[in-house]
């Protein structure tokens, strides 16, 4: 169980830290960056939540919780060794739930023939921020998964990929189901 | 024409994706990162727009539209091959318009003999956020342009460089033309 | 003394820039990225300040000022050559002040047996955003310090490491001293 009490330990002042397994790594290792980016997405969702209520708020809090499952997954590379505990991994049902919610929200939203300018309502604007950070996190996780000897569970990658699509559709939902979205007009200002 | 309907396709779950030309690339390729960072700037502008009105709002929406032109430019490397369509590129007039607006805003703002603490009014604070993300995007685009066989149009680089200066001056404008800016006092707290 | 008047100079349109020492570097050099990331943290604090008052506001403004000291430190690598001026460096007392404030705030906050979901009050939510960006800045600064011939002062690294812990504790303080924090429940949504 994670304990947070003293908070600062000074041990990381030279730039190294530890994974959940105890392995020492540089702070700039892509694995550390990957869960650091997930933490950024999570913080952006904390801001979005300020503007959310009802089912949307419930969904955001659930996703924030899932993102810690994702962080735990990333912080615990499967090196084929037996650990003292069962590592927590993202499971398919967490990805599936995102897909079902995307389908439900999207059913009420007209399709687009251009990109939309991020923004609109305060909630939509903040969901777009979370969306772009989610895509940045995805790039880091994908990079990690492409490295040798750096296992990443396929569900972790699927989850972060689907989450950015969830955030896009949720942002449209938060703009009167897309009615208030402003479309990109290619080359309009030349 | 871009179509957005189903939104998730699951095809990117292994970490690869496509440019507008159809070329397959890793998601962590600097080119993908470069337009991903532009998307982050765009999202930050969507938040800034929540606090803007009149000409400032109009300018922000125009710049958001321009950023999709920039994204299209970056997503379509000029490989010397003929495409089926005319690629959309940032043009000099888009950079020029930023410069003219900087000059106009700056004329009303006193010069500085130190940096200013980012913040102030809600609009100014959010424009500073957009400014710093714009500079991060610039670093990625510059990195891409420094790679071999990774063409970036000079106007794209000039646009993102000028945009961060536009955002700085606009932030000062949003702080009573600089009157409310707090200056950095080097080494004040030692 | 720093002068900001014309703002745009067009000289960086090809992707190179200068450190405070006059050395020319690529814009994507980790040193430039490191102070660019510090600038991002500073902008996030500018947003947090919108929701802060009294001692919290004072502390945020002081830290913003310190972050420019940090930026100056990073922008001025100690190459063993004598400069025309005394370079500004982060000093131990700036780190110490953070530690004392963490101890004071933390004394009023119950310890945790799990992570907390970033968010809560507007101030707490924005402090979590600043916290995650601070950790991203730390990764960049640590990376720089791990490169050959790229000196980083130990106090600079200690300062950014401690700052993220300060921001965590301050965020808890801003959630009724932790009473309103929502804890992560591992694997709750599977
Ligand atoms: C990875 C990590 C992070 C990541 C990702 C976490 C995530 N899950 O998303 C991120 C970057 C978000 C993070 C952030 C922070 N972290 Co951190 N983090 C860790 C680390 C390395 C692993 C935590 C983890 O996720 N473990 C995996 C989970 C599933 O494990 P678990 O909860 O323990 O549960 C499993 C097992 O323990 C077991 N189990 C559970 N209960 C029990 C009980 C018994 C008896 C047994 C046998 C087994 C068992 O089964 C579980 C299921 O698999 C720990 C250090 C460490 N090695 O534990 C530090 C650590 C907890 N973090 C720390 C700190 C300070 C922080 C931050 C405050 C830093 C900051 N300034 O931002 C924040 C707080 C964030 C927040 N919102 O609360 C400190 C706490 C110091 C202290 N004592 O006060 C630690 C200890 C690191 C350190 N030494 O400095 N962290
Ligand atoms: C690059 C890109 C992005 C970038 C940058 C885009 C930009 N311009 O800034 C970013 C990262 C922002 C992005 C974001 C998203 N994207 Co995207 N993106 C693309 C991509 C690869 C190219 C789009 C592009 O910019 N093309 C350049 C422009 C100029 O082209 P154009 O509008 O088609 O117009 C030119 C030509 O087509 C031609 N033309 C125009 N009309 C016509 C008509 C005819 C008949 C002809 C012959 C020619 C023609 O002339 C134009 C002028 O040059 C496409 C896939 C693809 N290959 O098209 C996916 C794609 C459109 N994106 C997709 C998705 C899902 C998204 C996101 C929702 C992802 C997310 N979760 O965040 C967001 C939405 C963002 C938003 N705010 O709306 C999906 C849509 C799937 C679907 N059908 O629903 C696609 C198809 C990728 C995929 N296969 O999954 N995207
Ligand atoms: C590093 C840097 C940054 C960094 C970090 C700064 C930091 N400290 O955190 C960041 C990324 C934040 C930054 C941002 C910006 N910057 Co800048 N920055 C610089 C740079 C390279 C060094 C500044 C610095 O920190 N110096 C260290 C400090 C301590 O030095 P100092 O204040 O001069 O004081 C020392 C000495 O000068 C001496 N001293 C002080 N006074 C005197 C007087 C005399 C007579 C003497 C002999 C000595 C002396 O002692 C001091 C103590 O050590 C300068 C260019 C340069 N080479 O100066 C550009 C520069 C100041 N920046 C510039 C610009 C445009 C910006 C931005 C507006 C860019 C943008 N669009 O975002 C922002 C503004 C940010 C803000 N909030 O105000 C331009 C200004 C152009 C102009 N004339 O208008 C410059 C000149 C670069 C350029 N050529 O384009 N910047
Ligand atoms: C919508 C378009 O965005 C690009 N794309 C796919 N995943 C990411 C990501 N994580 N970050 C940035 N861009 C991405 C692809 O080019 C896709 O077609
Ligand atoms: C103001 C100062 O910021 C630095 N600089 C220039 N461009 C960038 C960027 N994209 N990101 C971060 N720093 C930058 C240079 O050192 C310049 O002098
Ligand atoms: C709390 C946990 O976060 C990780 N850690 C330490 N420093 C950073 C950073 N700058 N960015 C991301 N993660 C970090 C370590 O694994 C630590 O144990
Ligand atoms: Mg995707
Ligand atoms: Mg510039
Ligand atoms: Mg730390």
TrEMBL record, chains A, B, C:
<comment type="similarity">
    <text>Belongs to the Cob(I)alamin adenosyltransferase family.</text>
</comment>
<dbReference type="GO" id="GO:0008817">
    <property type="term" value="F:corrinoid adenosyltransferase activity"/>
</dbReference>
<dbReference type="GO" id="GO:0009236">
    <property type="term" value="P:cobalamin biosynthetic process"/>
</dbReference>
<keyword id="KW-0067">ATP-binding</keyword>
<comment type="pathway">
    <text>Cofactor biosynthesis; adenosylcobalamin biosynthesis; adenosylcobalamin from cob(II)yrinate a,c-diamide: step 2/7.</text>
</comment>
<dbReference type="Pfam" id="PF01923">
    <property type="entry name" value="Cob_adeno_trans"/>
</dbReference>
<keyword id="KW-0963">Cytoplasm</keyword>
<dbReference type="GO" id="GO:0005524">
    <property type="term" value="F:ATP binding"/>
</dbReference>
<dbReference type="InterPro" id="IPR029499">
    <property type="entry name" value="PduO-typ"/>
</dbReference>
<dbReference type="InterPro" id="IPR036451">
    <property type="entry name" value="CblAdoTrfase-like_sf"/>
</dbReference>
<keyword id="KW-0169">Cobalamin biosynthesis</keyword>
<keyword id="KW-0547">Nucleotide-binding</keyword>
<feature type="domain" description="Cobalamin adenosyltransferase-like">
    <location>
        <begin position="7"/>
        <end position="173"/>
    </location>
</feature>
<dbReference type="InterPro" id="IPR016030">
    <property type="entry name" value="CblAdoTrfase-like"/>
</dbReference>
<keyword id="KW-0808">Transferase</keyword>
<dbReference type="GO" id="GO:0005737">
    <property type="term" value="C:cytoplasm"/>
</dbReference>
<protein>
    <recommendedName>
        <fullName>Corrinoid adenosyltransferase</fullName>
        <ecNumber>2.5.1.17</ecNumber>
    </recommendedName>
</protein>
